[in-house]
Amino acid sequence: MCGIGGEFRLDGAPPDLAAVERMLPALASRGPDGEGRWQQGPVALVHRRLRIIDLSDAGAQPMVDPELGLAVVFNGCIYNYRELRDELTTAGYSFRSTSDTEVILKAYHRWGTACVERFYGMFAFALVELATHTLVLARDRLGIKPLYLADGPGRVRFASTLPALLAAGDVDTDLDPVALHHYMSFHSVVPPPRTILAGVRKLPPATVRVITADGRSTDTTYWRPEFNRAAVPAMSADEWQERLMAAMRTAVRRRMVADVPVGVLLSGGLDSSLIVALLAEQGQTGLATFSIGFEAAAGESGDEFHYSDLIARHFDTDHQQIRIGGKRFVPAVHQAIAAMSEPMVSHDCVAFHLLSEEVSQRITVVQSGQGADEILAGYDWYPPMANVARADAVEAYARVFFDRRHDALGGHLAPEWMLDHDASLEFVAAHFGAPGADTALDAALRLDSLVMLVDDPVKRVDNMTMAWGLEARVPFLDHEVVELAAACPPAMKLAQGGKGVLKAASRGIVPDEVIDRPKGYFPVPAIRHLSGPLLDDVRDALTARPARERGLFRKDYLEELLDAPNARRTTLGSNALWQLGLLELWLQRIGV
Predict the structure, then answer these.
(1) Of 97, 135, 91, whose CA–CA distance to 113 is shortest?
(2) Rounded CA gap, 547 and 540, in Å?
(3) Long-range contacts of 479-483 (CB under 8 A, 24+ apart)
(4) What is the pLDDT of residue 298?
(5) What distance lies between CA 492 and its chain's CA centroid?
(6) DSSP string, 305-369
(7) Residue 429 CB partners (closer than 8 Å, separation 6+)
(8) I need a labelling partner for 358 at 20 to 30 A (CA). Which of 26, 157, 436, 466 fits?
(9) Which ranges in 77-116 belong to alpha helices (H)?
(10) How buried is 216 (Cβ within 10 angstroms: 0-12 exposed, 13-18 middle, 19+ buried)?
(11) Angstrom distance (rounded) from CA 332 to CA 350
(12) Residue 193, preceding peptide bond in cis (omega within 30° of 0)
């Protein structure tokens, strides 16, 4: 896990080394163990390193192979790198390191851009063909690793974080009105390639972009599950459960590949509990597990220690409870905002940020349970989609998921920021209209798995863990698990209140008390119920001079929210004032 950055010139000029160098401090937390830089011709690359595989200097980046004429910077982990290395060795390649980075270089030389189809893992990389001055950018199938881009006169810059691009300079920081519409309507999700800033874009997941020396650019989408039953044989419920659990066992085992210990973020829910159970089943002993809890607020509990403690005792893990008091909370909110590459409303961000701070003092790699709800229909907005006609799916989805419909948005955004069309509904309609996805629920799960998941929970976990140099691995987002879940009949996923096939498959592996418990979330009551210093900070941000000059929101709407900070909720129960406040807090934090 690392931070990468660079510049590719398209106009014959040398890269701006000072600008690229300015990226490094903004990437430092992603790679606290070292840094590297390289420049040749029109390309400059920088790298911050977190040592996980091949701890020696032989694994340092940027990695250059003069014999093959290639250079690369890479963020992530290729879990099957040993198998690929063996295959490449048999084909005649020699290796100077034991790193997965070097495997990317050799794999690209042998298979070209199709090498990504052989990678099992999470990755974002920038690879340069030295002879042709061709730049290849690639991102993993589920977008677990980020890659941001900023075009400028005669050049392209790229980095693991948006703030790194801002540090380099010369970025258009005007707000993107379409992205703002998505943020306010599509549950704060801004789909790729957009970000909230007009001058910064992100490479979509499962995409390889090839940019040639003359500036021509070609994108290839190399993976897209179908979300139907066409590619799988008819199976009984028991067979589906067996296949899902077999895939999860493989996914968990793959994510133990490291030259350092691997722990687990244990929330006490089924998903993280299953990861602990499968590791114990595979012979892991003394597994380090970590849970976090907050002070209660407005009568809402701030922890789920009962369930995480139960799992820790049952599997005899080396468990650590992390209790967060009120004095520590407000500073942590601002630290979490500073760690965001994009504004992220979920209060989970604060939990993951604090949890990562504590965990990183003991360990550098963890497995985490993100993704199960999106791929296996665990959320409460999925059952209403079950009996909807496919032709009515778009409207049904918007009704249960959108924070605000387009007409209502006109009463919230200032007139100069309102679009004359419903960009979010149009985006959903285009996604639902693509081939595949047999039923309305299939279409909703496809959208959530391939878009919402990437630009909400996955991005959240990456940003918050990497703020402390902690690598998080997510076995539920192994692409083979996602493919299997996409093909699973919707009724099996919706059973037992959601994730039915997973709950049934987990019987006898995870204690029933955890399987049958009510669905929980990362509880952070002090954000759901704004008061005290945090409410003051939100109020100050929304009434500060930058906010007034930006003029995003209608004055009457702002006054209504500030007069009753916890009265307005979005469709899915989020605090409406926090959504506005978080956006302004983030914009002011990055200096926009």
Answers:
(1) 135
(2) 9
(3) 479/120, 479/141, 479/142, 479/223, 480/120, 480/247, 480/250, 480/251, 481/244, 481/247, 481/248, 481/251, 481/375, 482/141, 482/142, 482/225, 482/371, 482/375, 482/449, 483/225
(4) 60
(5) 26
(6) HHHHHHHHHHTT-EEEEEEE-HHHHHHHHHHHHHT-SS----THHHHHHHHHHHHTTT-SEEE--
(7) 394
(8) 26
(9) 81-90, 100-111
(10) exposed
(11) 7
(12) yes
Quick one: tokens of 145? 């690793």
Q: Is 492 exposed, middle or buried (0-12, 13-18, 19+ CB in 10 A)?
A: buried
**Can you tell me the distance from the alpha carbon of 356 to that of 274, in angstroms, rounded to the nearest whole number?**
20
Q: Give the separation between CA 7 and CA 17, rounded to whole angstroms.
A: 8
Residues of the chain with pLDDT below 50 are none
- CB distance 6 to 157 below 8 Å: yes
Q: Is the dihedral of CA 240, 244, 247, 249 positive or negative?
A: negative
| Dihedral sign computed on CA atoms, order 557, 560, 565, 568 | negative
**In whole angstroms, how large is the CA radius of gyration of the chain?**
23
Tokens for 279, please give them: 């590791």
Query: Measuring CA to CA, which residue among 481, 482, 480, 464 is closest to residue 472?
Result: 464
The answer, yes or no, to whether the previous bond of 435 is cis (omega within 30 of 0) is no
Q: Whole-angstrom Cα distance, residue 138 to residue 553? A: 37
Does this model's pTM top 0.85?
Answer: yes
HSE-up of 471 (CA within 13 Å, CB side)? 28
> What distance, in Å, lies between the first and last C-alpha atoms of the chain?
29
| 514 Cα distance to chain centroid | 26
Q: What is the pLDDT of residue 502?
A: 98
Write down the pLDDT at residue 299.
59
In this predicted structure, what is the pLDDT of residue 1?
65
Q: Are 209 and 136 in contact (CB under 8 A)?
A: yes
DSSP state of 64: E
**Dist CA 584 CA 576 (whole Å):** 13
Considering only the C-alpha atoms of the chain, give the largest distance between any 2 of them, rounded to a whole number of Å. 70
- The whole-angstrom distance between residue 376's C-alpha and the CA centroid of its chain comes to 18
CA distance 543 to 213: 47
